[in-house]
Design brief:
Blueprint: H1 2-20, E1 23-27, E2 36-47, E3 50-59, E4 62-72, E5 76-82, E6 87-93, E7 97-100, H2 104-107, H3 120-125, H4 136-146
Antiparallel strand pairs: 1-2, 2-3, 3-4, 4-5, 5-6, 6-7
């Protein structure tokens, strides 16, 4: 009987740990969108014929969800940041980590940057956010914190708490 109880407690503990690891990072954006949560997406995303890891980012004060697809290339990692309002890519190479417009290679997949929603001043401020070679999770955190500032008008996207 003790073994059964011990086994049940072990299974419950392991099960709760697995469910708790869905959210892999949390933090503050210091924007009107509020705090963010980064969640790992279990199923890989097929992009350009390769299976790519993906993350979902949610924000406290808006229903908008952002998907980040990690594409490993020869000399760098590209993070496609896709939302219903704006799509860009962040590049992480040996020299820098920063934002760019989406490559033409992704246009064939149906992804392109629509500049009408882009805050161009902030875009140029984020061209280089820091040195390259960031770990994948650190890059996802940085994207979650800085992406809201790339949107032209945040006021239309946020909801008030009641």
């Amino acid at each position: 009987m003790k073994r059964m109880i011990l086994f049940a407690v072990l299974v419950l503990t392991a099960g709760s740990f697995l469910f708790a690891t869905k959210v892999v990072a949390e933090g503050k954006t210091h924007s009107t969108m509020g705090d963010y949560k980064v969640m790992a997406i279990d199923n890989p995303v097929l992009l350009k014929g390769k299976n790519c890891r993906a993350y979902a980012i949610t924000y406290e004060n808006t229903p908008m969800e952002v998907t980040v697809i990690v594409c490993r290339e020869k000399n760098c990692r590209k993070y496609l940041v896709l939302s219903d309002r704006l799509s860009v890519q962040y590049v992480n190479n040996s020299q820098y980590f920063g934002v760019e417009m989406l490559d033409q290679a992704f246009a064939k997949e149906g992804y392109k940057t629509d500049c009408t929603e882009l805050n161009r001043k902030e875009y140029f401020h984020q061209k280089v956010l820091g040195p390259g070679q960031l770990h994948e999770l650190d890059a996802a955190r940085t994207i979650a914190a800085f992406f809201p500032f790339l949107l032209r008008t945040e006021e239309n996207m946020t909801a008030e708490k009641q």
